[in-house]
């Protein structure tokens, strides 16, 4: 019988922090190893064949034996040197396990052996200060930049893997500055209003810290002079009402005008632009003269139209490259009666039989129509009627309230009468526009059954003869009762 042993896992791992002397490591962890390799021998314990010894394999591909040692008895891995994670973040090497007797395996020479991989990771500590790649950074911003405008991003580097960097910005003399820095990203932004005429360059000190180390660099912010005044329109809102679906297009709506209080020639060269709803597709502007035209008919009604088109007109000085002035443009649409009322595709109602209608009738359901014309005009105010009704004995069965579409039954109905079980009528909605438009829909009304009939036998008298030999419990004859009600059992 041949007895062999193997390591318990394919790879052993451990971690040790960088910048620790071996004695510091041993004191900190009470002499415990970084990791322990373990092999198991199947031979009976107690003999030399089960006395396992461990050693680090020395080869040309790894110098790990210079930095680690293994306890030959316990398999514990210990440091022999101080490590720098920034130079090397892990070590991989082989550990060999062998017993103390010649191998009895066929063809084997020497003792029984097994080899396993060991990987030791070097843990990062904060041992490197952050640093900037430049000694001086420059940024430029216009004097009219808005608050929170980003100017420049200055990123520091840190060789430590898990460092969290925070930034701070101040002037060399501690005076107030109109800038700030986002502490987590190094983005320098405008904190207060700027004025080129008051100060056009700022020297700032940007400090970065990783919580332990600080580093400072210089930033110079140059303020750029700009055209200070935007063009101003003669009115803040241009508004007009036109008829929807007007086919006479293109049509002039406005001629806008803006002026610029700056005296330089560039500020006088104003270019007009439109931005917003319908621009380009339905509205255009002459960029130099300010003529605003509608170029297509406009629909105000749902589902695709809108009652008001709102967009903005811009006046841009410096020949379209400078400051921008704004005014609102509102184009309101006057409704025309171009939509017919619409009923739902299917409308159903139900009423119990045998109900007395009285003078007002019995409410069955409401047939409502939708008219997409302007609800504030007569174009969408509807009147309802029944265009195709049912009659019994020359009297209409149903009526409809013309103002709200409520349908009433005007007579008592009997479901047991075949032609009174279900009714189909046609309703109509007519708007009050000029000229008016109408729409129609089909309503199906079902008469529900109630238990209003007594059961009855097919015969009033049953005459039956039975043989004298009939045994007790045997059937003599069968009788069945009927009921006109649909739900009777």
From TrEMBL:
<dbReference type="GO" id="GO:0008013">
    <property type="term" value="F:beta-catenin binding"/>
</dbReference>
<keyword id="KW-0677">Repeat</keyword>
<keyword id="KW-1133">Transmembrane helix</keyword>
<protein>
    <submittedName>
        <fullName>Cadherin</fullName>
    </submittedName>
</protein>
<dbReference type="InterPro" id="IPR020894">
    <property type="entry name" value="Cadherin_CS"/>
</dbReference>
<dbReference type="GO" id="GO:0016342">
    <property type="term" value="C:catenin complex"/>
</dbReference>
<keyword id="KW-0106">Calcium</keyword>
<dbReference type="GO" id="GO:0005912">
    <property type="term" value="C:adherens junction"/>
</dbReference>
<feature type="domain" description="Cadherin">
    <location>
        <begin position="31"/>
        <end position="132"/>
    </location>
</feature>
<dbReference type="InterPro" id="IPR015919">
    <property type="entry name" value="Cadherin-like_sf"/>
</dbReference>
<dbReference type="GO" id="GO:0016339">
    <property type="term" value="P:calcium-dependent cell-cell adhesion via plasma membrane cell adhesion molecules"/>
</dbReference>
<dbReference type="GO" id="GO:0034332">
    <property type="term" value="P:adherens junction organization"/>
</dbReference>
<dbReference type="GO" id="GO:0007156">
    <property type="term" value="P:homophilic cell adhesion via plasma membrane adhesion molecules"/>
</dbReference>
<dbReference type="GO" id="GO:0044331">
    <property type="term" value="P:cell-cell adhesion mediated by cadherin"/>
</dbReference>
<feature type="domain" description="Cadherin">
    <location>
        <begin position="243"/>
        <end position="343"/>
    </location>
</feature>
<feature type="domain" description="EF-hand">
    <location>
        <begin position="304"/>
        <end position="339"/>
    </location>
</feature>
<dbReference type="Pfam" id="PF00028">
    <property type="entry name" value="Cadherin"/>
</dbReference>
<dbReference type="GO" id="GO:0007411">
    <property type="term" value="P:axon guidance"/>
</dbReference>
<keyword id="KW-0812">Transmembrane</keyword>
<dbReference type="InterPro" id="IPR002126">
    <property type="entry name" value="Cadherin-like_dom"/>
</dbReference>
<dbReference type="InterPro" id="IPR002048">
    <property type="entry name" value="EF_hand_dom"/>
</dbReference>
<keyword id="KW-0472">Membrane</keyword>
<keyword id="KW-0732">Signal</keyword>
<feature type="domain" description="Cadherin">
    <location>
        <begin position="351"/>
        <end position="457"/>
    </location>
</feature>
<dbReference type="GO" id="GO:0007043">
    <property type="term" value="P:cell-cell junction assembly"/>
</dbReference>
<feature type="domain" description="Cadherin">
    <location>
        <begin position="133"/>
        <end position="233"/>
    </location>
</feature>
<dbReference type="InterPro" id="IPR039808">
    <property type="entry name" value="Cadherin"/>
</dbReference>
<dbReference type="GO" id="GO:0005509">
    <property type="term" value="F:calcium ion binding"/>
</dbReference>
<dbReference type="GO" id="GO:0045296">
    <property type="term" value="F:cadherin binding"/>
</dbReference>
<dbReference type="GO" id="GO:0016477">
    <property type="term" value="P:cell migration"/>
</dbReference>
């Amino acid at each position: 019988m041949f007895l062999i042993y193997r390591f318990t896992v394919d790879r052993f791992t451990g971690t040790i922090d960088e910048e620790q002397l071996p004695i510091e490591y041993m004191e900190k962890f009470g002499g415990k190893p970084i990791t322990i390799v373990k092999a198991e021998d199947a031979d009976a314990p107690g003999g030399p064949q089960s006395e396992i010894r461990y050693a680090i394999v020395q080869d040309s591909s790894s110098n790990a034996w210079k930095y680690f040692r293994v306890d030959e008895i316990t398999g514990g891995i210990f440091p022999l040197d101080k490590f720098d994670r920034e130079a090397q973040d892990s070590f991989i090497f082989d550990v060999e396990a062998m017993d103390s007797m010649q191998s009895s395996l066929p063809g084997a020479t020497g003792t029984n052996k097994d080899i396993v991989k060991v990987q030791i990771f070097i843990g990062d500590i904060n041992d490197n200060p952050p640093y900037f790649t430049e000694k001086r950074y420059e940024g430029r911003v216009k004097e009219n930049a808005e608050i929170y405008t980003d100017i420049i991003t200055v990123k520091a580097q840190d060789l430590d893997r898990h460092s969290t960097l925070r930034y701070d910005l101040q002037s060399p003399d501690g005076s107030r500055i109109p800038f700030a820095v986002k502490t987590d990203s190094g983005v320098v932004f405008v904190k207060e209003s700027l004025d080129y005429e008051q100060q056009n360059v700022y020297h700032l000190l940007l400090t970065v810290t990783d919580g332990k180390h600080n580093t400072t660099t210089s930033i110079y912010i140059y303020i750029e002079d700009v055209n200070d005044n935007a063009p101003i329109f003669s009115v803040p809102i241009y508004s007009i009402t036109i008829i929807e679906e007007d086919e006479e297009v293109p049509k002039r709506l406005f001629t806008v005008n803006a002026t610029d209080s700056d005296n330089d020639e560039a500020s006088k060269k104003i270019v007009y632009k439109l931005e917003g709803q319908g621009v380009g597709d339905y509205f255009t502007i002459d960029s130099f003269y300010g003529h605003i035209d509608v170029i297509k008919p406009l629909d105000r009604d749902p589902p695709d139209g809108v009652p008001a088109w709102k967009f903005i007109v811009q006046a841009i000085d410096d020949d379209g490259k400078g400051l921008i002035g704004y005014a609102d443009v509102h184009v309101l649409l006057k409704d025309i009666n171009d939509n017919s009322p619409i009923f739902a595709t299917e409308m159903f109602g139900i009423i119990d039989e045998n109900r007395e209608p009285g003078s007002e009738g019995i409410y069955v359901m409401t047939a409502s129509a939708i008219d997409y014309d302007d609800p504030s005009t007569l174009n969408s105010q509807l009147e309802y009627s029944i265009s195709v009704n049912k009659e019994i004995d020359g009297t209409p069965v149903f009526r409809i309230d013309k103002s709200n579409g409520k349908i009433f039954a005007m007579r008592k109905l009997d479901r047991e009468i075949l032609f009174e079980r279900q009714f189909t009528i046609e309703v109509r909605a007519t708007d009050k526009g000029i000229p008016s438009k109408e729409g129609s829909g089909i309503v199906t009304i079902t008469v529900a059954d109630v238990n209003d009939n007594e059961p009855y036998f097919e015969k009033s008298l049953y005459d039956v003869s039975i043989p004298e030999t009939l045994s007790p419990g045997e059937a003599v004859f069968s009788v069945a009762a009927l009921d006109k009600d649909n739900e009777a059992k």
